[in-house]
Here is the input.
Amino acid sequence: MLETIAIGSKDRVFVLTGAGISAESGLPTFRAEDGLWAGYNVEDVCTPEAWQRNPAGVWAFYSARREAGFKAEPNTGHVALAELEQRLGDRFFLCTQNVDDLHERAGSVRLVHMHGELAKSRCERQCGRPPVEDRHLYSSLEEVGRCACGGRLRPHIVFFGEIPLELGRIEREIAKATLMLVIGTSGSVYPAASFVRWARQGGARTVYVGLEEPLNATAFTQIVTGKAGETLPGLFQVE
Ligand code: NAD
Here is the structure.
């Protein structure tokens, strides 16, 4: 029998997604065991130190991620979550660790990108100016613009070692949730990997959907093994 998740009229659903939900759209996941992302060592391209040492190399990496992300299309997993949001309205909240925009393009609205967004840039200094839309693919540092304060523009990405975005709002949404659904994330990147325990402490049901058990598997009340694009459509029984 196919597994289903019952969602009652009083349930509030918090969804956390990771790289696995975009895998079927052709975007490579981050490999926790060897620390490689799209063939790169994350230390060389996604840390504040890498940015200080080699901003041209960081921009080359994120320009390639932009190019791949802009060409990719949402898959049936992204669409299933957008449809669930349409049915639940403000009883639904989505937090993604992904920097691609496939959730928005599938129709999701109530979402935050806790690790930033590929299609934006921001000042490298903490000068307080907000991120700007930027879809440029940079092939040299000379092309990269400057903020009004003089700082160089950097990708609007939370590098490893930096503090994720919107943590206050995320905490408030988790506190309200009665069901936490975690999809396609290995449970190796913190603080996202702790969210399931925060939800359990508040008494929520916690369900994982993904190819294999995550590292934090013991914190889940239910584990559904499979590809997100095949499993999510038809998974929810909304009352
Ligand atoms: P991860 O690569 O560590 O884990 C991905 C998980 O998804 C694995 O457990 C894997 O078993 C599972 N998976 C693979 N294919 C799947 C599928 N078709 N359906 C369901 N599950 C599948 O990813 P993470 O935990 O999200 O951590 C990676 C970090 O790197 C994140 O912080 C993210 O910001 C970044 N990243 C983003 C993207 C993106 O934006 N698309 C891609 C790679 C990495």
